Amino acid sequence: MLVNLREILEPAREGKYAVGHFNTVTLEMARAVIMAAEEQEMPVILAFDEEQTDVCPMEEFISFALPMARKAKVPVAVHYDHGCSFDGCIEALKAGFTSVDYDCSAENFEENVKKVAELTHTAHAFGASVEAELGHVPDASELTVELDEDGFTLPDEAREYVKRTHVDALSIAVGTARGSYSVQPKVDFDRIRAISEAADVPLTLHGGSGLSENNFRKAIASGVSKINILTDINIAGAQGAIQAISSGASTMTEIIPYIIYSVKVQAAEKIRLFKG
Fold it and tell me: In a 3-state reduction of DSSP, which class is residue 51?
């Protein structure tokens, strides 16, 4: 069942659970994620990252993601992740994405608000949802053992931001990072709770791969309704291929089932955890 982001995140926020967002760059990864969601009877988000066009062009992603979402037994949003330009987000909306993440987090507050408000107005006319970003989520290599609040989302700014942009979901910076963690991040759960109360909108946690189960549970209890995953299923798919070859597989048709199974197991583990 194809849906937009708001249709699955508002119930998640009310029900105190989170929806898994999985960046999938191949048909096999997307199939595995939907299979996992159907097994868990949970909604899910298939996402395309603008930065991964060299691996999977947007047109190719949408050609398999939309039909799979429509046929799925659970609600599936097809999400354009980290859109860095207005034109790119509009192209995604025209292609059929049901939600877009317009990332203007590198801009100053006023410019971020201005750009995102304009896109939100247009996206809503398409019947699509908008996620935006406030604060800086660093690369995992930038993390230290100490909690560095530089670039963290401020609750009062989040309140004003949501009021002025009318976004459907807000990605926040609270201590997580993108990529593979060498040390567990120090997540500011008090800040998540304060932002949730101030902004009154579903919150997104980027950099979910590698977080401990306890951190996931505490983040969800604090107000997170959407958690982004790529690295964990990306590694799982590669490990499936390695296992296939180690087991004697020598053709793609022999390797692909291993990849699907490995990604599905990893995705199902996350979805099960997120639903509480």
Answer: helix
Of residues 49, 81, 101, 188, which has the active-site annotation? 81
Task: Supply the CATH number for residue 202's domain.
Answer: 3.20.20.70
Question: In total, how many domains does the chain have?
Answer: 1
Give the Cβ contact number of residue 272 at 10 Å: 14
Is residue 81 part of the annotated active site? The answer reads yes
Name the band, by pLDDT with cuts 50, 70 and 90, for residue 183. low
Whose structure tokens read 């919150």? 203
3-class SS of residue 67: helix
Range of the domain at 16: 2-274
Counting Cα atoms < 13 Å in the Cβ hemisphere of 4 gives 19
Helix or strand (DSSP H, E) at 82: strand 76-83
Q: Strands 76-83 and 44-49, how do they pair?
A: parallel
**Cα–Cα distance for residue pair 30/47, rounded to 1 Å:** 9
Query: Which pLDDT tens digit goes with each residue over 194-240?
Result: 999 999 999 999 887 778 899 999 999 999 999 999 999 999 999 99
Query: Tens digit of pLDDT for each residue in 110-166?
Result: 999 999 999 999 999 999 999 999 997 766 555 555 555 778 999 999 999 999 999
